[in-house]
UniProtKB/TrEMBL annotation:
Signal peptide: none annotated. The keyword Acetylation does not apply. This is Enoyl-CoA hydratase domain-containing protein 3, mitochondrial. It comes from Roseibium polysiphoniae. InterPro entries: ClpP/crotonase-like_dom_sf, Enoyl-CoA_hydra/iso, Enoyl-CoA_hydra_C, Mitochondrial_ECH-domain. GO terms for molecular function: enoyl-CoA hydratase activity. Belongs to the enoyl-CoA hydratase/isomerase family. Gene3D superfamilies: 2-enoyl-CoA Hydratase, Chain A, domain 1, Lyase 2-enoyl-coa Hydratase, Chain A, domain 2. Transmembrane segments: none annotated. May play a role in fatty acid biosynthesis and insulin sensitivity. Keywords: Fatty acid metabolism, Lipid metabolism, Lyase, Transit peptide.
Length: 278
């Protein structure tokens, strides 16, 4: 985090320990999971805290880009297996709890995709199972060279079906199936080759590179970024001809926006645009 801004502590757990830390600096909103002793697992509390911060980021006009990171050697270990196991003692064997947890996780991942602002994952350790899903759900991902990724559910008799949704929308089918069927870890270089992450950055330069990368995106029109992100994910689910029809209409609507007019005029006049975000 930048030393020029003051971090804020976000939601705490039942013991009073902060689940997240946040920082807003020059339009970049950093959300850091800080439960390394629990491998930043996606417990129900953690997912609720993340969702609340994403909602806050979506509604704050000063936030233009979200950066999601974590403390410790594990970026995110996926679901909290102790929490899942404890639910087996319930009258229905845990079924209702499992349904609620899987729905909550699915909603969180879709919230990231539908957030009207870009979300960048910064991976400094292991991203496994739903943690790998979390990386895949973000719009962009950067990692240190020692980061690893896996969907190991098959090793414990639990196929990573929900991580599969995000993974299969980021990497080629055979590469996704390789990860899902073997449960083996892949290194950062392989993850980049697969298309799961964008860049590999030396740890010593990570904060500097991420901030520069995020600020470059934050300098664009927020209205244009919102239009573009929404259109990107919507057209992916369409047949080719429908996608072109949708994209063409999106371009027309975008051209009518004030920021498009300002951006084009600024380019022609060789000056920096002054965005009004509409």
């Amino acid at each position: 985090m930048s030393a020029s801004a003051t971090p804020e502590t976000a939601t705490s757990d039942a013991d009073g320990k902060p689940l997240l830390a946040t920082l807003l600096h020059q339009g970049v909103y950093r959300i850091v999971m800080q439960r390394p002793e629990k491998m930043n697992a996606l417990s129900r509390e953690m997912m609720s805290a993340l969702s609340a911060e994403l909602t806050k980021a979506a509604e704050d006009p000063d936030v233009r880009v979200v950066v999601l990171g974590a403390e410790g050697k594990v970026f995110c270990a996926g679901h909290d297996l102790k929490e899942l196991t404890a639910a087996r003692a319930e009258a229905d064997g845990g079924k209702a709890t499992y349904e609620a947890i899987m729905r909550q996780c699915s909603d969180l991942m879709q919230q990231i995709v539908r957030l009207p602002k870009p979300v960048i994952a910064v991976v400094t350790g292991v991203a496994t199972a739903a943690g790998c899903q979390l990386v895949a759900s973000c719009d962009l991902a950067m990692a240190v060279d020692t980061a690893t990724f896996c969907t190991p559910g098959v090793n414990i008799g639990l196929f990573c079906s929900t991580p599969m949704v995000a993974l299969s929308r980021n990497v080629a089918p055979k590469q996704a199936m390789e990860m899902l069927l073997t449960g083996e870890s892949i290194d950062a270089s392989t993850a980049k080759d697969f298309g799961l992450i964008n860049r590999i950055v030396p740890r010593d330069y990570l904060d500097q590179v991420v901030q520069k990368y995020a600020e470059a995106i934050a300098s664009k029109s927020a209205h244009t970024l919102k239009i573009g992100k929404e259109a990107f994910y919507r057209q992916l689910e369409m047949p080719l001809s429908d996608a072109y029809d949708f994209a063409a209409q999106t371009m027309v609507d975008n051209m009518m926006a004030n920021d498009a007019q300002e951006g084009i005029n600024a380019f022609l006049q060789k000056r920096k645009p002054e965005w009004t975000d509409d």
